[in-house]
Structure formats: structure tokens, C-alpha cells
């Protein structure tokens, strides 16, 4: 199964959620191969998996130098074999534990790359080519490379970290996925992001805009590509509802009501009745995990150095966070 973590809105915690889900799932299921695909030009999830701030950045540079990133693969396909696999797909994946000993040994990374923005132009150029099925083939580049890994490794589960934009490399991630996990925050912008997903991926719209704006949906629909929404994850939920503002609670209730109505009115967009999971506000957990490249299951109640400061993580933060995280992980097939 392939999961794309995406919302058409920034700042909802896509990368942190991808990291937490993938590392926790890998630790819980050692018999499976887990792949994280970094489809964001910032490559933050790659840095976290490779060791966190500082070491992770240096190790990611090594991947650049050795041409082991998703952007390197896209460039190679364009140069060598635009619409067929090139035979070296497996060389682009790295075993994360070779770089970061904290990561489960069954987790692999297809590293991100700042050059993904350049690759967007490459993908669009390939899509406009005169060849038959040019658009389809250019947008299946990620599906191709993941498919090779799956052929060589049974019981593979893939997590695709995405960019909030709807750039062509984001489209590659959606096309390659079977399921979409939608992170949200308690605000109206997240609701608009959910509505945009329904419009862009499923062709569901409230307005009467011209269909030209629904080109992506039309193309993947005609190709029989049908990713389904798996769940919504309400990131940064307040630990104690009684301390939450009236506006915050209203937004939480609005998101839950919106998702309930969407599932009722458009069941074909969902893999099942959609669950809205709460993920407690991580407070100091997120900076510690980011800085040290430390999977959540390895967190301990103690002080951690983060740059020149010290952050204290305590049991009252760890326990509710892991409880919420495990509920989402248990829903992963």
C-alpha cells in the first residue's frame, strides 16, 4: 500500500507526520519493508531520517553527490529513457539505518532534492512531447521507481511526503499513491485545503468554473487512477480541550462535520468511512525529533540539547502523543 501525506495547505505538519508514521510503522512491523519517498524540494523528511539537523543535511549532500535522489532519477529518465525504466532504479534507494542508527533497519528512503523545482519543468516538458501517452508516462515516473522496489521486496508499505503546492512533482506523488492521508490544523484554511483536494483529485466542486481547471482530475480519471482518502489527522490538537478557545473548538467541530458530510455525499472518494484522528500538540517533542532524527518510540523523559538550548521532554507530553500516533499507525494497512 502507498500513502501520500498531503493537504493543499502549508504548515499542517505533513513532514513531521510522515516521519512519525513511517518510523513507528517500521518499528511495529519489522517483517515489512517501509519506504519513505521525499517529494518536497525542502527535503526536510530526508534530513530527519538521515540524522536530523546538521548530520542529516551533510548525509543528504552525500546522496546528492552520489546521484541517489528522486530528482537525480527524474533527470536520468529524461536523459536516457524518457518513457521506460532505466534498469538502475534500486540504486536510488538508501537504507536509512546506514546513515542514522536510530532508524529501524527495515526503513528505506528515496531522498528528496532541492532540484525538484527544476524537475517540475522537466516533467512538464516530457508531458508535452509528441510521443503517444506522453502525459501519462511522464507522470508515472514515481510509480515506476516505486514499482521496481516493490517487485524486489514483498510486503512493502510506502509513505510519500508531499509539498503543499500542486506542482507536477506533487501530482507524481498523488498518482503513485493508493491512499491519501490529510493532515489538518484547526482553522478555516485547512477546510479550504480539504475542499481543494476534492476539487483537484476527485473533480468535486461547488462552483460552475470551466472544466479546464479540472484537467488533472480528468486525466487520471480517464486512466483509471483512483487514489482514495484514507483519513484526516488533526495535528496540533490541544492537550486539554477545556483550555482551548471557543474559536479553536468551533474549527475542530467544523472539520469533523465537513469530513462527515463529504463521506456521506461522496463515498467513492474514500477508502472507508473517514476517521478524523487527533494528534496532540507536540510542544517540545517536534523540535527534539527534528533536531536529533529521533523516532518517537525512542523518546525518553529527559533534557535534550537543541542547538544552543535545552528542551525538556516529559512523560505527560510523550504518553498522549504516542497514544494518538499509535491510533493512526494501527489504521495503516
Question: Quick summary of this structure?
Answer:
44% of the residues lie in helices and 18% in strands. With 333 residues, it is an alpha/beta fold.
Helix content: 40-55%
Describe the global form.
globular
- From the N-terminal CA to the C-terminal CA, the straight-line distance is 7 Å
CATH-assigned homologous superfamily:
P-loop containing nucleotide triphosphate hydrolases
Biggest sheet: strand arrangement: 3-4-2-5-1-6-7-8
Structural notes for this entry:
There is one protein chain. By secondary structure, this protein is of the alpha/beta class. The chain has a single domain (2-283), classed as P-loop containing nucleotide triphosphate hydrolases (Rossmann fold, 3-Layer(aba) Sandwich), CATH 3.40.50.300. It has 13 helices and ten strands. The chain has helices at 14-28, 44-49, 55-65, 70-80, 116-127, 134-138, 141-152, 168-176, 188-202, 215-222, 246-265, 285-292, 315-330; strands at 2-5, 33-39, 94-95, 107-110, 156-162, 179-184, 228-237, 270-280, 302-306, 309-313. The strands form two sheets. An eight-stranded mixed sheet has the order 3-4-2-5-1-6-7-8, with helices on both faces. Helix 1 (14-28) crosses helix 13 (315-330), helix 4 (70-80) runs parallel beside helix 5 and helix 7 (141-152) runs parallel beside helix 8 (168-176). The longest helix is centred in the last third of the chain and has 20 residues, at 246-265. It starts with a strand and ends with a helix. The mean pLDDT is 91.
Topology, element by element:
Elements: E1 2-5, H1 14-28, E2 33-39, H2 44-49, H3 55-65, H4 70-80, E3 94-95, E4 107-110, H5 116-127, H6 134-138, H7 141-152, E5 156-162, H8 168-176, E6 179-184, H9 188-202, H10 215-222, E7 228-237, H11 246-265, E8 270-280, H12 285-292, E9 302-306, E10 309-313, H13 315-330
Parallel strand pairs: 1-5, 1-6, 2-4, 2-5, 6-7, 7-8
Antiparallel strand pairs: 3-4, 9-10
Amino acid at each position: 500500500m502507498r500513502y501520500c501525506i498531503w493537504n493543499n495547505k502549508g504548515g499542517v505538519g505533513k513532514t513531521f507526520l510522515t516521519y512519525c508514521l513511517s518510523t513507528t510503522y517500521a518499528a511495529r512491523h519489522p517483517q515489512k519493508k517501509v519506504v519513505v519517498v521525499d517529494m518536497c524540494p525542502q527535503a526536510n523528511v530526508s534530513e530527519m531520517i538521515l540524522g536530523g539537523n546538521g548530520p542529516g543535511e551533510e548525509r543528504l549532500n552525500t546522496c546528492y553527490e552520489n546521484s541517489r535522489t528522486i530528482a537525480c532519477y527524474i533527470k536520468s529518465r529524461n536523459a536516457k529513457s524518457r518513457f521506460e525504466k532505466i534498469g538502475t532504479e534500486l540504486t536510488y534507494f538508501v537504507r536509512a539505518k546506514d546513515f542514522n542508527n536510530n532508524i529501524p533497519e527495515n526503513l528505506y528512503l528515496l531522498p528528496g532534492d532541492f532540484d525538484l523545482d527544476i524537475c517540475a519543468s522537466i516533467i512538464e516538458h516530457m508531458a508535452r512531447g509528441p510521443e503517444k501517452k506522453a502525459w501519462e508516462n511522464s507522470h508515472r515516473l514515481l510509480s515506476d521507481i516505486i514499482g521496481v522496489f516493490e517487485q524486489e521486496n514483498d510486503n512493502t508499505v510506502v509513505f510519500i511526503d508531499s509539498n503543499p503546492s500542486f506542482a507536477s512533482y506533487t501530482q507524481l506523488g498523488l498518482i503513485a499513491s493508493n491512499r491519501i492521508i490529510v493532515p489538518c490544523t484547526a482553522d478555516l484554511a485547512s477546510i479550504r485545503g480539504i475542499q481543494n483536494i476534492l476539487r483537484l483529485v476527485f473533480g468535486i466542486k461547488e462552483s460552475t468554473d470551466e472544466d479546464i481547471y479540472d484537467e488533472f482530475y480528468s486525466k487520471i480519471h480517464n486512466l483509471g487512477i483512483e487514489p482514495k482518502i484514507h483519513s484526516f489527522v488533526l495535528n496540533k490538537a490541544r492537550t486539554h480541550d477545556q483550555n482551548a478557545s471557543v474559536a479553536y473548538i468551533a474549527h475542530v467541530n467544523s472539520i469533523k462535520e465537513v469530513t462527515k458530510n463529504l463521506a456521506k455525499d461522496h463515498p467513492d472518494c474514500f477508502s472507508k468511512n473517514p476517521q478524523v484522528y487527533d494528534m496532540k500538540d507536540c510542544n517540545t517533542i517536534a523540535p527534539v525529533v527534528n533536531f536529533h532524527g529521533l523516532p518517537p518510540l525512542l523518546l525518553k523523559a529527559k533534557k535534550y540539547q537543541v542547538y544552543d538550548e535545552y528542551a525538556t521532554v516529559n512523560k505527560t507530553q510523550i504518553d498522549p502523543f504516542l497514544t494518538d500516533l499509535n491510533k493512526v499507525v494501527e489504521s495503516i494497512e
